[in-house]
């Protein structure tokens, strides 16, 4: 009686399955397949946001087992075998009956299980050897197909329209961060933002993003990003404070993600409360340095280049040119990266950081976010989302990076 609102094509799902299988042979060479528990990774591999487990054998047909939502799963996914289950003790027999029996050794996406459920799974499958397999899925998700890139390009275009073209005409000095946040929600939702940002790092959460006026940009933060914020409340340290007013002569940073059809782009837009010619030299130079670093990364982020090379150059330039103290955050807000992969979550593989030496590949999508904290003043800088092409990185979230004057 119902039709699904959307489908991931069967050929696209098969491509993803083959990518995971290929990486699994390196990540867990003894495993005969992988068990996937994370709902988002289940969506990536099946096309439905299922609550349960996917068994993806190295050879044979995948089996999706759901605690709830079997009818929805069958509407949305092209998988042949979508079955209900109640207990982990049923998994092996259900998959065997579907023609895809468990193997002696199996990889598991362990980040999709809490400790209690992991122990329960081990007890129910004690005759099997369970091997960590998270990286096989992470590496598959790292390189996007044309199907995914098309969504991300549309997402980035809408993102730029909201932050660069529309919001400057609605916000003004004298507004609180919270008022600016509410306008941002209104604009983003009107352009198709689907209302959620997802993160894969354990314990991290984000609602649309950060709104930081003036010294809020350096406010102590527990979030794994360089931009500080006061946030709504200690119990919800997100978006902007009702008590912080954007004053004349202050920068304003909006680090807000956009989500379309499950995929994210990340972008930070800097504004200044006053005319362009009133921007203080210290602020202007810091912002221009960040643009320069982003542009350098954009030019050099080609297939074969490693994330660690990009990171090392930016850190070296910051140190040599007097920006080292506040580059990528002040004091405890400083983070050890200049960007990150992005897709179905804000924080995908690879980090653009020291020690990440797997070369970039065409089809990767990364967010580059050089930012500069200025003690006692604010944080400035940029962030945009880039598609790795054969001759460098191409911004899909706009190509105007200047600080926008608002007065």
Automatic annotation (TrEMBL):
Q: Which InterPro entries match?
A: Creatin/AminoP/Spt16_N (IPR029149), Creatinase/aminopeptidase-like (IPR036005), Creatinase_N (IPR000587), Pept_M24 (IPR000994), Peptidase_M24B (IPR050659)
Gene3D superfamilies linked to this entry: Creatinase/methionine aminopeptidase superfamily, Creatinase/prolidase N-terminal domain
Alphabetized CDD domains for the sequence: APP_MetAP
**Pfam families tied to this protein:** Creatinase_N, Peptidase_M24
Q: Where is the Peptidase M24 domain?
A: 150-389
Query: Which residue ranges does the record assign to the Creatinase N-terminal domain?
Result: 31-138
Q: What is this protein called?
A: Peptidase M24
